[in-house]
Structures are given as structure tokens and as C-alpha cells.
Amino acid sequence: MTRADKHHVENPQQPARSPEQQHEWRRLDWGLAIPATAKAGWGARAIYAYRPGNVRVELVYNRQSGFGDEHLRGPLQHWLNTQGLQAIQDCCQREELTDDSARTIWLAQPPYYLLASPNASCGYLYLSAWMDSDVDASDRIAMLRQRFDQ
Fold first, then answer.
1. Fewer CB under 10 Å: which end of the chain, C or N?
2. Cβ pair 42, 128 in contact under 8 A
3. Is the pLDDT of residue 136 over 70?
4. Please, which residues bridge with residue 89 across strands?
5. Which pLDDT does position 125 carry in this prediction?
6. pLDDT of 127 over the 50 cut
7. Distance CA 24, CA 29 (A)
8. d(CA 144, CA 135)
9. SS3 of 36, please?
10. What is the pLDDT of residues 20-64, one digit of tens each?
11. Where does residue 128 rank: exposed (0-12), middle (13-18), buried (19+ CB within 10 A)?
12. What are the helix and strand counts (H, E) for the chain?
């Protein structure tokens, strides 16, 4: 046993975790990290152009990834196609999210959630959406506020 291991065994208390560290995050092939508790998820890197009064978001078919059982992915994809993507595009316009910004904006329509950020890329918008079917919506919204709101 190394000295560090011995210290850990003798002092099993872990240091206090920051509020952000209290939630585990899962990385996707494309998009932004999402909560590890998500039942189904989707991520993408889209083409993004912001001009005052005009926002353009174009998905690229080979810059998307997802996970989850089909019975959960289907409703998530339907929500994205019918509501989520238009709503986040409207948020980008309203929030004046420029293509060189590093801010992350989010949308919550429980059980669906969507994150978007240009990550200061000057041309891409990183998107992630997920579905939480058995998580209290108020807890998830509080977590998003804590992590992303200024």
C-alpha cells in the first residue's frame, strides 16, 4: 500500500464537492456534455451563423450522435424536430448568441432538455438534448441554472 493509499484509508472523508461536481456529466461524440442520468440523448455540431435579426442553424447528418433505447430516442427526436430545434434557434436569436460567444443557453420542456453553445468557434453551434423520464424537473432546472446561468 502506498503512502497516498494509506492516507486515504485512514482519512476516508472526501473533500467537499462544488455544486457543479455534484452532478455527473456524460460526453457525447458530438455536442455538449449532458447529465449522466439521461435515459436518451442526442448531440450535434451544426453550422451556425448569427447576424442581428437572423440566426441560421443547419444540422450536418454526419456530425450527430445519440444513445438510448428506441422507445425513448423516438420521442426525443420527434420533440427535437417539431419543437426543440426551432425553440433553441429562437432562443439564440432572442439572447443574441453570437457565433464567437462561449456562452451556453438552455431550454427545458420537461422531460426534454436542450443545450446550445457556439463554444467561441465562429461558425459552429454545439447542441445536446436529452430526455429524463424519472427525474424531478425542478431538480434538473436548478442544476441547469446553477451550471449555465450568469
1. C
2. yes
3. no
4. none
5. 97
6. yes
7. 17
8. 13
9. coil
10. 445 688 999 999 999 988 999 999 999 999 999 899 999 999 999
11. buried
12. 4, 8
The pTM assigned to this predicted structure is 0.78
Query: In one letter, which amino acid is 8?
Result: H
**C-alpha distance from residue 51 to each of 10, 14, 68, 116 (Å):** 58, 48, 35, 17
Q: What are the beta bridge partners of residue 58? A: 47
Cα–Cα distance for residue pair 14/78, rounded to 1 Å: 42
User: What confidence tier does 134 reach under pLDDT thresholds 50, 70, 90?
Assistant: low
| 34-55: burial string, b at 16+ Cβ within 10 Å, e else | bbebbbbbbbbbbebebeeeeb
C-beta separation of 104 from 115 below 8 A: yes
DSSP 62-105: TSEEEES-HHHHHHHHHHIIIIIHHHHHHHHHHTT--TT----E
Hey, which CATH number is domain 25-148, 3.40.50.1580, 3.30.450.20, 3.10.450.50, 3.90.1150.10? 3.30.450.20
H or E segment and range at residue 29 = none
The set of cell numbers assigned to 8 is 486515504
